[in-house]
Design brief:
Oligomer: single chain
Number of domains: 1
Helix content: 25-40%
Order of helices and strands: EHEHEEEEHEHEHHEEHHEHEHEEHE
Structural class: alpha/beta
Distance between the termini: 34 Å
CATH topology: pyruvate-formate lyase- activating enzyme
CATH architecture: Alpha-Beta Horseshoe
Radius of gyration: 20 Å
Strand order of the largest sheet: 4-5-8-9-10-11-12-15
Number of strands: 15
Strand content: 15-25%
Largest sheet: 8 strands, mixed
């Protein structure tokens, strides 16, 4: 397969750099695991400040005079710990279960549901007891066999952005390659996929890239990889033989949205190698928010252009005991039908997993 390089490449546009934390905390027991020591070596080699803490729950006061400053500093803080709760949450409609290897994200997407999921704890956490996590995954697989059990690794984080520090995705992919009835999935907004390209996966891991219109990426997705970088990475993933997918999320209604999403899918077809489209999947998620999220987003990103007018939305009861606000039925139908038509226009063999 020949990987097409977009017209705007790293030669003309500065490449998005990998995440490097400003401060790292180690929780009790983290350094009793090989991965904990590996991360300590990473920290010391780069001269990153680190501290020991009795619990991540004690990390509450971040420097800064404003909500925005404190939030930005918290998002550049990494906590290394041991995952104690090994019961996996359900992860519908993406997968059967969420497999927990990290929480938190270095991106600054204004709309992100992690605004409320993580609440006052926006720092990033990674877990060093991967063997315990995989042992639990094995139990879930065996309980459901011969039915296929799928695991989503990006429910509360973007693990690709942390892979150069943890190596956890590599471990999960290699583990799942040998599981007849196990499958792994994760989605990313980052292009740093190099560590995943030359490992055994046995087609048991589907890697998806979150994509959106130019307007949404420019306005609402700071500190993530550019569209061109993501699609170039997607081509590399396809070349490595992984099942490939895309999540268009959040789908946002704005002036000119039809042209924005039509251009998105046309560009995707033009850039993606033709032989990378076999078995391609799409997932579509409309923009939604809760009152809690609205309040937090307006504090953390006071200049955001994100539309969150409750009067223009439809209430929908959420899984976590709060109403969320989605588009009215007429707008939902228009978004779903228009984007669905454009997907099949450019990728007639693709499969749409869901619209929600």
């Amino acid at each position: 397969m020949t990987v097409k390089i977009p017209v705007r490449t790293a030669r003309t546009v500065k490449s998005t750099r990998v995440f490097t934390p400003d401060l790292v905390y180690f929780e009790p027991g983290a350094l009793e695991y090989p991965k904990g020591n590996k991360i300590m070596d990473y920290v010391k080699a780069r001269g990153i400040e680190y501290r020991m803490t009795t619990s991540h729950n004690r990390i509450t006061n971040f420097p800064g005079e404003t909500e925005q400053e404190k939030y930005r500093i918290a998002k550049r803080t990494l906590v290394v710990g041991v995952r104690k709760t090994l019961a996996f949450d359900q992860s519908k409609p993406s997968a059967d279960y969420a497999i927990p290897i990290s929480t938190g994200c270095m991106g600054h997407c204004h709309y992100c549901y992690l605004q409320t999921t993580l609440g006052a704890k926006p720092y990033i956490r990674v877990y060093v007891n991967t063997e315990d996590i995989l042992r639990t995954a094995k139990q879930y697989i065996e309980e459901r066999a011969p039915q296929i059990t799928t695991f989503e690794a990006a429910c509360t984080s973007d693990p690709v952005g942390l892979e150069h520090i943890t190596g956890s995705l590599r471990e999960l992919i290699q583990f799942m390659a040998d599981e007849e009835f196990g499958r792994l999935r994760f989605v990313t907004k980052f292009h740093h996929v190099g560590p995943l390209l030359n490992i055994k996966h046995n087609n048991h891991t589907r890697i998806r890239f979150s994509i959106n219109s130019d307007y949404v990426i420019r306005q609402f997705e700071p500190s993530t990889s550019r569209f061109e970088e993501r699609i170039e990475a997607a081509a590399k993933i396809a070349h490595a033989g992984y099942p490939l997918g895309f999540i268009i999320a959040p789908i946002i209604w704005y002036d000119g949205w039809e042209k924005g999403y039509a251009d998105l899918l046309e560009r995707l077809e033009n850039v993606l190698p033709k032989d990378a489209t076999d078995g391609l999947t799409f997932e579509m998620i409309q923009h939604r928010f809760t009152k809690t999220a609205k309040n937090l987003i307006e504090k953390r990103y006071p200049k955001t252009k994100l539309e969150m007018d409750i009067a223009k939305r439809k209430q929908k009861w959420g899984r976590w005991g709060q109403y969320k606000y989605v588009y009215p039925n007429e707008q939902q139908t228009a978004l779903r039908e228009f984007i669905t038509e454009r997907i099949f226009e450019h990728f007639p063999k693709a499969k749409i997993d869901y619209f929600t």
